[in-house]
């Protein structure tokens, strides 16, 4: 379990984007990532605009948004509006793309197509199932991003999370060796892999390892949904299991008082962290 503060890890994390995220978490006192699985682009921007002070990260699924011909926003207009909100309110953007193909294919999916994910998402994620080429294919795109003349290094720094575990019922991540092989793959690519999607701490802190772990399947009002999602509380995830970031979707945007509920998740996630580092 990490007893180190977010602030001290913000000085030493091996990736630029990891240091940047940890410093946002520390200065805004929030380890809450808002996951926003609604399908209207304008609604996404409205919700993010309202909840921005409470969050360190917004997690998108760009491919569930609908952009009909009469849509008030094009895809680039949407991503540029989201990027402006991120700059203004000091949070990062995580596109939950869960890449899962060979390196050559994912490089096109990440850098091109209609979404151009690498241009606007600071963080994305991938399955380790296809082997290490997936990391190399994504990193090639990230490394080729141009830095704007007045930009900061973190503006175009990119990071990858590997899926080490999932929250859904009956997932196959416990099959022998899968999780340890995923960790080994991350260890060989430390300048791009910043951490994991997992249910709790990953890696060996005594060996100086520092992975940022983000945990989905967090809800304080429900234990699951009808399609296999399984929920835990912020206290369990952050304090008991040593994760760093809670990812919350329907628990927040499905509630009547979104701002009040987001504040409750922020406070509980933050207190769970403070209790962990003091323990
Ligand atoms: O809070 P929810 O249940 O409304 O949304 C959870 C979000 C969804 C999922 O695609 C995502 O978290 N997710 C992931 C991620 C982040 O990779 C992995 C996982 O194991 N479980 C999960 O729910 O947008």
In brief:
The protein has 279 residues and is of the alpha/beta class. Helices cover 42% and strands 14% of the residues.
Task: Give the key terms.
single chain; alpha/beta; globular; binds 6-acetyluridine 5'-phosphate; OMPdeCOase_dom; orotate phosphoribosyltransferase activity
- Classify the helix fraction into a percent range: 40-55%
- Give the uncertain stretches in residue-range form: none
Terminal residue distance: 10 Å
Main pleated sheet? 8 strands, parallel, barrel
Give the oligomer, counting copies of the same chain as homo and different chains as hetero: single chain
**CATH homologous superfamily - what is it?**
Aldolase class I
Q: How much is the radius of gyration in Å?
A: 18 Å
CATH architecture: Alpha-Beta Barrel
* Number of E-state strands: 8
Average predicted local confidence, pLDDT: 95
What does it look like?
The chain is of the alpha/beta class. The chain has one domain (6-278): Aldolase class I (TIM Barrel). It is built from 12 helices and 8 strands. It has an 8-stranded parallel beta barrel with strand order 1-2-3-4-5-6-7-8, surrounded by 7 helices. β7 (212-215), α10 (234-240) and β8 (245-248) form a beta-alpha-beta unit. The model has no long low-confidence stretch (mean pLDDT 95). The site of 6-acetyluridine 5'-phosphate has 18 residues, from β3, β8 and α11. 6-acetyluridine 5'-phosphate binds next to β3, β8 and α11. Belongs to the OMP decarboxylase family. One of its GO terms (biological process) is 'de novo' pyrimidine nucleobase biosynthetic process. The active site is at residues 96, 98, 101.
């Amino acid at each position: 379990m990490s007893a180190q503060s977010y602030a001290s890890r913000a000085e030493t994390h091996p990736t630029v984007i990891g240091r940047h995220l940890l410093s946002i978490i520390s200065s805004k006192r929030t380890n809450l990532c808002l996951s926003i699985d609604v399908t209207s682009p304008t609604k996404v921007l409205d919700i993010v605009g309202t909840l921005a002070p409470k969050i360190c990260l917004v997690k998108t699924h760009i491919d569930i948004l609908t952009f009909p011909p009469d849509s008030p926003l094009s895809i680039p207009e949407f991503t540029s509006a989201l990027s402006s909100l991120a700059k203004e309110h000091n949070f990062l953007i995580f596109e939950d793309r869960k890449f899962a193909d060979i390196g050559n294919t994912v490089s096109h999916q990440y850098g091109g197509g209609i979404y151009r994910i690498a241009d606007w998402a600071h963080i994305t994620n991938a399955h380790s199932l296809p082997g290490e080429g997936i990391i190399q294919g994504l990193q090639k795109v990230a490394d080729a991003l141009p830095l704007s003349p007045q930009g900061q290094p973190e503006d175009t720094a990119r990071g990858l999370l590997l899926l080490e575990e999932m929250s859904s019922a009956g997932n196959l991540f416990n099959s022998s060796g899968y999780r340890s092989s995923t960790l080994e793959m991350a260890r060989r690519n430390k300048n791009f892999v910043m951490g994991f999607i997992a249910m709790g701490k990953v890696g060996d802190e005594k060996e100086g390892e520092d992975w940022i772990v983000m945990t989905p399947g967090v809800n304080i009002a429900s234990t699951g949904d009808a399609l296999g999602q399984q929920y835990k509380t912020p206290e369990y995830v952050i304090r008991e299991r040593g994760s760093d970031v809670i990812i919350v979707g329907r628990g927040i945007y499905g509630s009547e008082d979104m701002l009040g509920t987001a504040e409750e998740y922020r406070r509980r996630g933050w207190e769970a962290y403070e209790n962990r580092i003091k323990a």
